[in-house]
Amino acid sequence: MLQSSQANLPINRKRNSPISQPELLGPFVANISHESASVWIQLYGAEQVYVKLLPTGQMFPLRLHTDRCHTGMVRFSQLKADHLYHYEIYCDPLGQQPLDLQGLCAEDLYFYTMPESVNNHQDYRLDFLLMSCHGPEA
Description:
By secondary structure, the protein is mainly β.
């Protein structure tokens, strides 16, 4: 990663200027099943964030790996089938400092788990993937 001379901040490659706040890609929900799901993000300027799963209120640390382009993933397990879950992302383990979602609304941070089965024997299957790179400056 490029570094600036100003307090060793990462360089924004598009603007060739120091990043003054973390730059976020995601979050993306992945690997959804009837009992589990994952949340993935890429975030420069932080080493770890915390994901709070609602309605349980459980807080999960999400480590951002510098050797993996500042990405990280947290996996939720033992979830209820065919159920709505919301999540929140924080900069601190106590959940007092929300992460700046950089244009994404907090209300958009949710997912549904898959139903456990169809017709008593056939599992649901997701055969497509839809992703978006969100950039409020674009």
